[in-house]
Design goal:
single chain, mainly alpha
Length: 526
């Protein structure tokens, strides 16, 4: 069996620049380098201001204070540019893999680990969510309940050295994160004291360790197949879009996925252990429950294992949400009522609201459409994705009877269906799709998800509610409210077209024949 540390190497001669691995790897490194430069410049329209370091030697590190903030247009254009380079490089890398590129997995994984680690030592970009994480931990430390109280209630009534550094728009919103995420926020506050800079470092440390753990387990699962291992590396630890969304922006997505992927790893061995894993994952972020449904579906023909899975899930979930914080469950479900900018639903809901003059009714209709799309897309993807086993399955065993393969494939189906149909969707949420993509076989979904994620990431530059010029605000709003929603609609259309052509291959054949039809001699070829 192939070991993931193998140094076996086969020369690869690309046939075109868009299949050239050198462009792919160089572009990934260039994109991350640009992000480092933006971070090292210090506070700007995209880089967070975490307040004075007060002599702390801890990261995040950045250069000496400049006479004035970096030009807002320069840092935003650089951010847009690096994301376009990142997305394009990833697409080239997948094309190269499809053409026969076989890189050294150890070198690729090490490169991704270094890039991820260095990124976590620099100030977060584009999102102020990590400041809210710090504030929720601060509320716990001063005896408040983050599921009931809000940071704004504190800083409007008294000075607090941590809470007052939060940024809009979530200052009046209670926490929507699970108990494990809340414990990490409290721990960061104990370790960082009353210095927001140090609290952010500890939050970043927790998040990057979780993210690297997710990557390591994913690579361990894929280690038996060299081609699959290289896919897993590019989908996780060397994925510049995921590094941007999860590490550069210091989001907590890895805290739930680390437990979920740990549970998935046990699917062939222990239903109870798998249940404990997904239960702990749900205690960090409830949306990972989609993977739990996938795991239960994988055990549908094994009642005993299904029962053990449910029991294992119930133990941490019951303790966390039932005994420790019942209010957390209600608060966590609040996200279901939001509509995010950049999603397919944002212009649709706005159009309905304009016609009906009733926000709540428009929201209700949008919600129904969203759940309908979820079901339809899930059914389509369940028929489209190839049935190839997750590495490690003995030869001759039907992958449809392998619980790990069924669980990963179903998790991908449900995750993608939810991501592309949800009214509230953000680029870092896609980690729950890129992980199963990495251990499953290649398909058209690779490119679809890269493009979806790229434009959602572009939509949130600068991504903060901060003072910027009207001109930059207009440009950023155009990307967020026009370009990204159009791309999200195109993503839905691409899945539908893929399904139609797959279901009716004769139609696909006729279309290919028409596209390849030679131009008659003497015809106007201008």
């Amino acid at each position: 069996m192939f070991a993931w540390g193998s140094n076996a190497y086969e020369p690869y001669a690309p046939t075109a620049w868009h299949r050239d691995h050198r462009f792919a790897v160089g572009g990934i490194l260039l994109a991350t380098t640009i992000s480092w430069v933006i971070s090292l410049l210090g506070p700007s329209a995209v880089a967070l201001d975490m307040g004075p370091r007060n002599g702390s030697l801890l990261p995040p590190w950045y250069g000496p204070k400049l006479p004035s903030m970096p030009n807002e247009w320069a840092v935003c254009i650089a951010s847009w540019l690096l994301l376009l380079i990142a997305g394009g490089s990833l697409l080239i890398a997948f094309r190269a893999l499809g053409e026969g590129w076989r890189p050294r997995p150890r070198r690729m994984a090490a490169m991704g680990g270094v890039v991820t680690f260095v990124t976590a030592l620099l100030p977060p970009l584009t999102s102020a969510d990590v400041l809210m994480y710090a504030a929720y931990g601060r509320l716990q430390r001063i005896g408040r309940d983050p599921y009931v109280d809000t940071p704004a209630e504190v800083f409007r009534s008294l000075y607090d050295p941590v809470v007052w550094r939060t940024e809009k728009p979530w200052e009046d919103t209670p926490s929507v994160y699970g108990p494990i995420a809340s414990w990490s926020q409290l721990a960061a506050n104990f370790l960082g004291g009353e210095n927001m800079h140090d609290i952010v470092f500890w939050m970043q440390a927790f998040h990057v360790v979780a993210f690297l753990g997710v990557c390591a387990i994913t690579l361990w699962i894929a280690r038996g197949d060299r081609d699959r291992l290289n896919r897993a590396i590019l989908m996780t630890v060397l994925n510049p879009l995921m590094i941007w969304g999860v590490v550069t922006s210091a989001h907590n997505e890895g805290l739930s996925v680390i437990f979920a992927i740990g549970g998935m790893m046990l699917m062939r061995r222990s239903g109870f252990g798998a249940g404990i894993g997904i239960g702990l994952a749900g205690c960090a972020k409830l949306s990972i429950g989609l993977w739990g449904i996938a795991m239960l579906w994988a055990y549908r023909r094994e009642p005993k294992k299904a029962l053990l899975l449910c029991l294992g899930t119930l133990i941490p979930m019951g303790l966390a949400y039932g005994l420790w914080k019942p209010a957390a469950l209600t608060s966590v479900l609040r996200n279901a009522s939001y509509v995010s900018a950049g999603s397919w639903a944002q212009p649709f809901h706005g159009w309905l609201d304009t016609i009906l003059h009733n926000y709540e009714l428009a929201l209700a209709i949008t919600t129904v459409v969203s759940y309908t799309l979820l079901v339809v897309v899930a059914i389509m993807l369940s028929r489209l994705l190839p049935w190839k086993p997750v590495p490690g399955l003995p030869e001759g065993v039907d992958p449809k009877k392998d619980p790990m393969t069924v669980a990963f494939r179903t998790a991908l189906v449900l995750s993608v269906a939810w991501l592309v149909s949800s009214m509230y969707t953000l680029s870092w949420y896609d980690l729950i799709a890129f992980v199963p993509l990495g251990v499953l076989a290649a398909s058209q979904l690779d490119g679809i998800m890269v493009i979806r994620n790229l434009f959602l990431a572009l939509a949130y530059v600068p991504g903060r509610v901060t003072d910027i010029s009207d001109e930059l605000d207009s440009a950023a709003s155009f990307v967020r409210t026009t370009i990204s929603p159009l791309v999200q609609w195109a993503v839905l259309a691409a899945i539908i077209i893929w399904f139609v052509l797959h279901t009716w291959p004769s139609l696909a054949q006729r279309l290919r024949s028409r596209l390849r039809r030679p131009v008659p001699q003497g015809a106007d070829q201008r």
